[in-house]
């Protein structure tokens, strides 16, 4: 059942592929926001950076779990 979800094709690519791209983009967005806050180019609270980081970690855990649980 888990393999069916992980390898579900979307536009010819498996779901785990798109989830990996989402993780990469989420981590890049988190790093960019942190850099922009640090240099003062963006005036926003640090809490948005922390929320984006928490979302990135959650997304990465789901992506990793889908990949790892295929072999159990």
In short:
The protein is mainly α.
Question: How are the secondary structure elements laid out?
Answer:
Layout: H1 2-6, E1 9-10, E2 13-14, H2 15-39, H3 46-68
Antiparallel strand pairs: 1-2
Primary descriptors:
two-stranded antiparallel ribbon; 2 strands; mainly alpha
Walkthrough of the structure:
It is a single chain. The chain is mainly α and 72 residues long. The protein contains three helices and two strands; from the N terminus they run αββαα. A hairpin with a 2-residue loop joins β1 (9-10) and β2 (13-14). α2 (15-39) packs antiparallel against α3 (46-68). It is elongated. The mean pLDDT is 93.
Q: What is the residue-mean pLDDT, rounded to a whole number?
A: 93
Rg, Å, rounded: 15 Å
Name the overall outline: elongated
Our count of helices gives: 3
Helix content: over 70%
pLDDT under 50 segments (min length 5)? none
> Quick one: how many beta strands?
2
> What percent of residues are in strands?
5-15%
Describe the strand arrangement of the main beta sheet, using strand numbers. Answer: 1-2
End-to-end distance, in Å?
Answer: 12 Å
The largest sheet, given as strand count, sense and whether it forms a barrel, is: 2 strands, antiparallel
**Which structural class matches the secondary elements?**
mainly alpha
Order of helices and strands: HEEHH
């Amino acid at each position: 059942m888990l393999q069916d979800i992980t390898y579900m094709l979307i536009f010819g690519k498996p779901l785990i592929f798109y989830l990996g791209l989402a993780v990469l983009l989420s981590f890049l967005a988190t790093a960019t926001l942190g850099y922009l806050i640090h240099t003062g180019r963006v005036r926003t609270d640090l809490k948005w950076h922390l929320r984006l980081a928490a979302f990135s970690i959650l997304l990465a855990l789901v992506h990793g779990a889908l990949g790892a649980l295929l072999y159990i």
